[in-house]
Amino acid sequence: MTIKNSSTASGVGRVLIAVYAVMALGATARSVFQIATKFDEAPLAYVLSAVAGLVYIVATIALVRSGPNWYRVALVAIVFELVGVVTIGTLSVADAVLFPADTVWSSFGAGYLFVPLVLPVLGLAWLYRVRNSQENR
Amino acid sequence: MVEWFVWVQVVIALVAGVSAVIVGLAGIKPNDYTLGATLLVEALLVVQLVMAAIAPALGNVATGSALEFWIYLVSAILIPPAAVMWGLIERNRWSTVVLGVACLAIAVMVYRMSQIWFVQLA
How many whole angstroms separate alpha carbon B103 and alpha carbon B50? Predict the structure, then answer.
């Protein structure tokens, strides 16, 4: 496997990647279903749902790969996620019509056991730790 | 879906998941027990697949979207083999935790599948 030499993919980072992979699969599969069957009900929410799925895929790949460029991609993807879950979470509470309860980021990811809210925080903490350990080397 | 079988699946996946996370964090590499438990979770998913395919013919029909149910089931079936392959390639403690994460994800997905099957109002 290519993940051997990637610093973001070492140690506990592997568990993070596994969770990201599961979220990528779950969020993407679900948004494909929603867009295919009930897109008209809440177009904006379902498009954002698909975007969320794609961001999880990007984050998974970026964490697996090594090098400063992939590190930056991972950072951008994870920050995007954090902003997404907080923004959409707030909007879904404020405007239930625009954002029905069944998207990944609605109600701060309650439908996914709040994993979407916790994951970017853990992801950023992990990226921070990886960067520090490389500077100290 | 048959309700008691759902609970068997959820409980076994939870126990397999939590114990793999614990022994993984304790430093144990993937072994016959943790890999075997994950394969058991996978085997139960395959049984569920067969049962869900037959059930509608016997009058046991999903109350929610059958398509959504099947997307969940097919996605779920892909996860444990991926985790087991990971555990066979990367022989360290984190692979054991990954096995646990996979089993816990299955527990949640099976529970969600049961909601689609039994209590969907739409």
Answer: 20
Domains of chain B: total: 1
Q: Which of A1, A19, A33 sits opposite B71 (nearest CB)?
A: A33
**Residue B60 vs residues A9, A14, B24, B63, B102: alpha-carbon distances, Å:** 45, 40, 40, 9, 29
Q: Is B38 on the interface with A (CB under 8 A)?
A: no
Enter the pTM of the model.
0.82
Question: CA–CA separation, A123 vs A9, rounded Å?
Answer: 12
- What residue has token string 């049961």? B114
What interface predicted TM-score (ipTM) does this complex get? 0.74
Q: Cα(A12)–Cα(B22) distance, rounded to whole angstroms?
A: 14
**What is the domain extent for residue B13?**
3-118
Residue A53 CA to its chain's centroid (Å)? 7
A131 Cα distance to chain centroid: 20
Q: Is B17 helix (H, G, I), strand (E, B) or coil?
A: helix
Query: How far, in Å, are A65, A129, B10, B30 from residue A30 at the CA level?
Result: 26, 32, 21, 31
**Which one of A8, A12, A14 would you mutate to disrupt binding with B, by most B Cβ within 10 Å of its Cβ?**
A14
Q: What is the pLDDT of residues A12-65, one digit of tens each?
A: 888 999 999 999 998 898 888 888 888 887 788 788 889 989 999 999 999 998
